[in-house]
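Reviewers asked in the last cycle whether our approach scales beyond single polypeptides. To address this, we selected a multi-component target totalling 268 residues and predicted its structure end to end. The input consisted of the following lines:
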Amino acid sequence: MKIATFNINGIKARIEALPAWLAQANPDVVCLQEIKSQDKDFPRELFESMGYAVETHGQKSFNGVAILSKLPLEDVVRGLPGDEADEQARWIEAKVVGKTAVRVCGLYLPNGNPVEFAADGQPVIAGKYGYKLAWMARMRARVADLLTSEEALVFCGDYNVIPQAEDAAKPEVWARDALYLPQSREAFRRLLNLGLTEAFRARNPAPGQYTFWDYQAGAWERNNGIRIDHLLLSPQAADLLTDCQIDKAVRGGDKPSDHVPVWIELDA
DNA sequence: ATGGCCGGTGGAACCGGA
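The resulting structure, written as structure tokens, was:
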């Protein structure tokens, strides 16, 4: 079972590039982030005609996540539990019914910038950065809850976290950024420490492999990238992992997103 | 992480992104 994550930066803008990648990569399941569309405006028929079941959790203008699957989807959950007042569409999960059932959770973790700093140099945990860290704590609670089921779980998406220095071409410029602050990376490690496996690093030790290149300042041409799109696996899913790759070439295609797909192959 | 962008909204600038 091939499962991918792809921040498409707007479904309308990617209406040609996304089907082209699907046809070439042929994933069984894809978690999409930043669909930037309401559910009623998502072009579901286009993907249904390619053989995918479509589940969306969108909102107007910003954010929005979706799952496309060639296998049936059951037990769909929309929205990250733990805060009824949170109206941002950043979480969707569903059980993929195949030879082995896999619960797939697609997430678009908050960016968290801008960060305000106190006189002592420490980041102020409030505003957008406070929302990011609170969201990560809520996600940790959800992950811990799902882990009690002992099913194969895949948590994939745009985490907006650069885990380590080797995951950025120029780590020094990110020192005061919400994507790389110690508190952000610690919260990411706390997720892993629940017993999850970060699929890409489990299979690719080399530094300098990225999933995002900014549209500005020739970042792609200079390979000035960061690795922020991740797939985290429960022990039962990690046991099935046979491959994990970044589809880097997609960034050089026509009208690309600023992110590229990352995918895993599970023996499931 | 910028000299240089892009997408959505709404119908011009402006917000949000990473």
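Residues 9-10, 12-13, 34, 36, 60-62, 111-113, 160, 170, 173-174, 177-179, 212, 214-219, 224, 226, 228, 258 of chain A lie near DNA strand B (CB under 10 Å from a C1'). We regard this as preliminary and will revisit it once experimental data from Aim 1 are available.
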